[in-house]
Design brief:
The structure is a single chain. By secondary structure, this protein is mainly alpha-helical. The chain has a single domain, classed as 2-Layer Sandwich (Protein Binding, DinI Protein, Chain A), CATH 3.30.910.20. Helix content is 78%, strand content 6%. A three-stranded parallel sheet has the order 2-1-3, covered by helices on one side. The chain is rod-shaped and about 85 Å long.
Length: 166
């Protein structure tokens, strides 16, 4: 009888320990930023953003050269002009400077919007692949490795790249 109680107690302990172990969450990690940067669509998006950026930069540089040319012309002609004409020209130059500043701000805003619109589907695709691999392999949590100090769990990078066909 005593052996039966001991055996029963040991069985209860074993079942409890087993269920506790299986109840623990499985955790994996991945460097999401590295994954996104390695995706071919990301490289294509960066090319488009760079192209747009260079277009804006060319326009801004052209406007700055034109403004500089106009300033030099106005400075050279200032002595021969009336005070009222010089004042009008300075107001014109200030207006051009303000327009150029507004254009630069709008260009920056457009670039940020373009970047967001191009990267959003890439990030969503990466997230979906991470979730699919985690679910397939039974992971309840996937942590971004860029924020980890110690990473003992499985790195899903190769599995997610395989899922993405890379």
């Amino acid at each position: 009888m005593k052996h039966l109680k001991t055996l029963l107690f040991a069985a209860v302990l074993f079942i409890g320990a087993t269920s506790f172990t299986s109840a623990q969450s499985k955790v994996a990690h991945i460097n999401k930023q590295e994954l996104i940067k390695s995706m071919p669509a990301y490289a294509q998006a960066q090319i488009e953003i760079e192209k747009m950026s260079k277009t804006y930069e060319t326009e801004i540089q052209g406007s700055l050269k034109e403004l500089d040319k106009k300033l030099k012309q106005y400075d050279a002609e200032a002595a021969a002009q009336t005070q009222e004409e010089n004042q009008r020209r300075m107001e014109e130059v200030e207006g051009i400077k303000q327009s150029l500043t507004q254009f630069q701000q709008q260009a920056q805003k457009d670039l940020q919007e373009k970047e967001f619109n191009l990267l959003k589907p890439i990030v969503e695709k990466a997230d979906a692949a991470i979730k699919a691999v985690a679910k397939t392999q039974g992971y309840q949590y996937v942590v971004d490795a860029a924020m980890l100090i110690v990473a003992d769990g499985k790195d899903l990078m190769l599995d997610v790249k395989t899922q993405l066909g890379m």
